[in-house]
Amino acid sequence: MDVSSDPYLPYDGGGGDGIPLRELHKRGTHYTMTNGGNINSSTHLLDLLDEPIPGVGTYDDFHTIDWVREKCKDRERHRRINSKKKESAWEMTKSLYDAWSGWLVVTLTGLASGALAGLIDIAADWMTDLKEGICLSALWFNHEQCCWGSNETTFEERDKCPQWKTWAELIIGQAEGPGSYIMNYIMYIFWALSFAFLAVSLVKVFAPYACGSGIPEIKTILSGFIIRGYLGKWTLMIKTITLVLAVASGLSLGKEGPLVHVACCCGNIFSYLFPKYSTNEAKKREVLSAASAAGVSVAFGAPIGGVLFSLEEVSYYFPLKTLWRSFFAALVAAFVLRSINPFGNSRLVLFYVEYHTPWYLFELLPFILLGVFGGLWGAFFIRANIAWCRRRKSTKFGKYPVLEVIIVAAITAVIAFPNPYTRLNTSELIKELFTDCGPLESSSLCDYRNDMNASKIVDDIPDRPAGTGVYSAIWQLCLALIFKIIMTVFTFGIKVPSGLFIPSMAIGAIAGRIVGIAVEQLAYYHHDWFIFKEWCEVGADCITPGLYAMVGAAACLGGVTRMTVSLVVIVFELTGGLEYIVPLMAAVMTSKWVGDAFGREGIYEAHIRLNGYPFLDAKEEFTHTTLAADVMRPRRSDPPLAVLTQDNMTVEDIENLINETSYNGFPVIMSKESQRLVGFALRRDLTIAIESARKKQEGIVGSSRVCFAQHTPSLPAESPRPLKLRSILDMSPFTVTDHTPMEIVVDIFRKLGLRQCLVTHNGIVLGIITKKNILEHLEQLKQHVEPLAPPWHYNKKRYPPSYGPDGKPRPRLHNVQLKPIAEEREETEEEVHLLNSTTL
């Protein structure tokens, strides 16, 4: 039987195994299994065995963990440590070490995350400037550092110094002219393609998991899914190197999202140093939640925003102690990054700005308009990027990731170089757009016509008419906006590390700066209008275009990710001012509302669904009127439910059942006649238990009776030795009745992290619902069903029955269309007859 089509297999992401017993020994020590034993039992796995069986209690790749069992294992471990700590000083020391191991692992994670973030920032800045030239006096200096010690720089041309040489000066000896421009153009494209090719080659050869943002996979892993190697040391090493190369290549991507992946890799690696976390997948996810907070902390210099990001966006299970440890990890990571000072400005981020003028009430209108733009941009980007990624998966183009990256990098470099705003590093661009025009700014965005009557230089320069440089910059920014929108759609998802935070913020900052300049000029030339009359007098500084850029950046990022609280906190931590929280909140909420009008999924949830990851989104509402009986497996047309009996099966019977089916678990019933539920046994538990018993216990043969009961039934004297497997039986599986609404079942799966749930009717086992079944059901309802409000006479029947009046199976269309009352009554009676005559 095909595992992927198995109707009641606990979801394993396609990794369910149908391994026959004779093949088990070939798997060696890497064969792992999920402990299916009684979660309240501390006895050994098999009776008459003294040592635990290797492989019990762990998970195979692409499987979902059992949160309830993992928490019970942790409680049992904690009780055992507390019971022994008074026996000796050594046991007391072990108890203290166990208690403090959580703080130690998040401290190490914060230290490593901050150090790697500083290294990535410094290397990315140096390699980005390498595309334009090199510092002859010190090769390891970037452009800005190279000119710090020069005495020959001028105020207007502060970035030019004799120590810094462009490639045209080095190769053809010309600093100006068409030849110099063409040579610099060629070298810019050469370095961009070289960096992009090296990045995608390293990812393809050494660590395929190092591509992309990583946040969709982090969210899936934190929900309980196992992806071996995704947070490993090779992924960490390659992601760190290729992230620098990808940012330096000039592609429309950022390093902030992948920094969360880097921090989670650090947390996963350090968790293996502490048995408390290395042997418990649920506890390990608490460390990963803290690591994601540290990643955002060093990405944006926003420790509080990082904690809220982990809570709002990525974490599935977030107890109070994880909140404290996330805060501490973010603090340590930010402290380390501040100590390294990678940007040389004593700040944690490159585009830290401060504004000296307040905002006025009439400005809420353009702020809300920026929020509308952010929501529209988010909805467009999600649909366009998902459509392109789906096309990449379904066409031959997706089979050549290196070629795709080279093409995207070439197009980006060729178009970006002529425009000074697209040629800039994206973080530098955001910094320039955020910056307010002061007396020391020489950017073309600050080329205003000055008042010749001004007698002194002040910090708050009044609104002035725009000069030619400003109008030229606006046209260049409009072209940059179109370029960034198009290229970001095609760049996010290619096989290099690619974050979405910075490109989205850049698009919003460009739009916001354009809107800010427009409002500023409108207020200057029409200061007598009633909306400007009270605040914008002649000579007053009432409009700050940089503030509009900041609000636009937050709105666009919110439209793409649908973050709210954490995003506002991150942005105001960037700017250092609490005064602008209201404009940020208004823009972010507007962008979320507008984006939700086109679809409630953020970009990360959309990519999770595109990749088929088993993720039940807690934000998604279940509004349909289906029952557990409509979703459970097996269907009436399927083979009957495969079950084990309590004490009537032999070892050979169980081996045959395992070899003939691909199910990952079997309900255990009292007998074929009663069908009463006793417990649930996992396939791999049975497989390893029988193999181990045959090796370590004498007298276990194929005809040996297998007993799941507490007491072994009396057997004839000549019978072979029975095998007791009660200790691997889950005596308390979660069960629901067949009339339980699916809304409640979905809620149970989300909040308890279940893998499967048995469906019963008056204590009789009818079927099983797995996480995979729920995801398939939700997808089918999303594609085919518009929820309808049931009328008063709409009984518990939700779907048409599987069999028509002629006894032939009718196709199940997953459609919630109401029937006439008479027809509905006939079908209801038919369903009752079928239910009564069904034999399991």
Describe the structure.
This protein has 840 residues and is mainly alpha-helical. The protein has four domains: 84 residues, no CATH class; 119 residues, no CATH class; 241 residues, Clc chloride channel; 158 residues, Roll (CBS-domain), CATH 3.10.580.20. It is built from 29 helices and eleven strands. The strands form four sheets. It has a three-stranded mixed β-sheet with strand order 3-5-6. A three-stranded mixed β-sheet has the order 4-7-8. Helix 27 links the parallel strand 9 and strand 10. Helix 20 packs parallel to helix 22. The protein is elongated. It starts with 66 loop residues before the first helix and ends with a helix. 46% of the residues are buried.
